[in-house]
Input
Amino acid sequence: MTTPQTPQSVIPPLFAGLCDDAAIFPPGDLALPQAVPAHLAHHSAWYAELVGPFLCSAGRIGALSEQLAAGEAPLDGRLPVGLIVPEGSAGLADALRAVAADPRLRLAGLEVLADQGKPAAEGVRAVRAELDRLLPEYAPGVEAAIELPRGPELLLGLDELEGTAYRAKFRTGGVSAAAFPGELELASFLCAAVYRKLAFKCTAGLHHAVRHDDEATGFAHHGFLNVLLATHAALEGAEHAELAAVLGERDGAVLAAKLTGLDEGQVRAARAAFTAFGTCSIAEPLADLLALNLVALP
Output
C-alpha cells in the first residue's frame, strides 16, 4: 500500500507566509464585514501559503469578535490574528486578554509600538519588559515584534533588541510622502538589523514587488522583491551603498533573475531575517509574482 504524498505548494519557500493581511488598515481601509470573508477566502485559495495572519489593532478586537460571531466561521474554528498594539506597553495586557477571551481567535503574531514620548531605547525596554512578563501567561511561543521609531535613535532601539527573542518592525510607507524612507535609510536599517542578527518585518507601502512611483500620489514605493534581495545582500556582507542600489532597482526582471538564483540555504537565511510585511492588498503582490513568473498558477 502506497502512502499518499502531500501535494507540493505552488508558493515557493521564498514567498511562503510573506504577506500579512492588513486589509482593514490604510490605504485599503476595508470594513470588517468584507475583510474577514476575504481573508478566509485567501486561506482556502490555491495561493494560501503566501498569506499570513489577519492583522487587527487592539482597539478593533471587540468588533472582530462580533463579526466572527455574526458571520462565517474560520475553517478550523479559529482565526489566526496578528495583534497590533499601537499604545505600546500600556495597552499590551488588555489587548492580550481580549484575544485570549475569544475562542474564535488564535494569536498568531504580536506587534507592539515602542513607547512614545521617551528616548527610543527606553521605549523599547518598556515594551520588552511587558512582553517578558505577559507572554508566558497569554501567548507562550508567539513571535513578537517591536516597532521602532525612524530617525537618529533607531540604532539605540535596535541595540535593545539584540540578543532577545523579539523581532524589529520597521515602517516602509504610509499615507504621506514623509512616511516613506529613502533607499539609504532603509539600507541602513537592513545593515543594522542583519549585523545584530535580528529578524524583522516591514509594514506599509510594500504591496508591489518592484520599486516604483505611485501614479495617484507620486510617492516612491519600495518593492518587496527589492527588500528581499537587499536582505540577502546584507547577509552576504554588502555595504550601505550597494544595498541602496538594490533597493532602487526598478527592473523586475533583474530582481526576479537574482532571486531565482538563490539556493535553498540562502532562501532560508533571507526569510529568517525578513519574515513578512503587512499589505492591505493580497491581490497586488500575488499579481506581480505571477507577472514575473516567480509563482505559477496550479
User: Anything to note?
Assistant: The radius of gyration is 19 Å. The first strand starts at residue 19 and ends at 21. The longest helix spans residues 120-138.
